Amino acid sequence: MFIAALQKTTLLDYPGRLACIVFLANCNFKCPFCYSKEIVLEEEIKNILPLKEGDFFDFLKKRKGKLEAVVICGGEPTINPTLLSFCQEIKSLGYKVKLDTNGSNPVMVKKLLKENLIDYVAIDLKTSKEKYQKLTGSLIKNVAEKVNQTLSLLKESKIDWEVRTTCVPGFIDKEDILKIAQWAKGAPKYYLQNFRPQKTLDPAFEKVKPYSSQEMEEMRQIASPFFMSCDVR
Ligand code: SF4
Predict the structure, then answer these.
(1) How many domains does the chain have?
(2) Which residue stretches of the chain have pLDDT < 50?
(3) One MF term in GO for this entry (predicted)?
(4) Which of 41, 51, 104, 191 is the most buried (most CB within 10 A)?
(5) How far is the CA of 32 from the centre of ligand 1 (A)?
(6) CB neighbours of 42 closer than 8 A, spacing ≥ 6?
């Protein structure tokens, strides 16, 4: 497990719980608007001094009774073959686990759900199905179908979860939002996130002007009828 970084406290990333965030390096997507190139691009990853797993678990042991949950994000956590045992160890210490995923590995998500190793999932729906391959820069065959399988697993599960979309001008428009909302219908919560033109994987995206608050609200209104809860954040 390549632990690229640890954020020791967050009140924002696990709904209603005090959590830490563990960032795992590497991703099977190469979204051009990604803000995390330091843990996505191989040439950047090699400059990272990873946190040892033992040190991470020592940290969790010391914080027992103070922290309640661990958010596992990336990169893409599910591409790590040892994610199951990693979650098992976190759970054995009494923590809740939230997984942030791009949804590309339904096989791993199915195992995690079956073993009760995740309590909350945030899945990104990057765009509408037909634009998926291009936008994510993914070499995975039929990537939208893989994401769809993960989405179906979550819809059938008993855990709490949410769907998120980063609204990147030029890639996500109102038509896409409607298609994504129809696709994700049945999710308990849907969040639209505005794009931030900062240290993007493709530098050209640093020149893209984000949507205005008014435009974000208009997209929220399009998605809103499909969900119990739908917000911009
Ligand atoms: S935005 Fe997420 S899925 Fe896309 S490359 Fe970055 S970490 Fe991977």
Answers:
(1) 1
(2) none
(3) 4 iron, 4 sulfur cluster binding
(4) 104
(5) 8
(6) none
pLDDT digits (tens, 9 = 90+) for 76-85: 999 999 999 9
The per-residue pLDDT for range 89-147, each reduced to its tens digit, is 999 999 999 999 999 999 999 999 999 999 999 999 999 998 888 777 767 788 999 99
Residue range(s) defining the domain that contains residue 174: 3-232
Q: How far is the CA of 206 from the centre of ligand 1 (A)?
A: 16
As for ligand 1, residues whose beta carbon falls within 6 Å of it are 27, 29-31, 34, 36, 40, 74-76, 102
Angle between helices 174-184 and 143-156 (to 10 degrees): 50
What pLDDT does 138 receive?
Answer: 66
Under a CB-based contact definition with an 8 Å cutoff, are residues 226 and 181 in contact? yes
d(CA 149, CA 116) in angstroms, rounded, equals: 18
- Whichever domain contains 85, its CATH number is 3.20.20.70
The CA distance from 66 to 73, in Å, is 21
Q: How far apart, in whole angstroms, are the C-alpha atoms of residue 87 and residue 219? A: 35
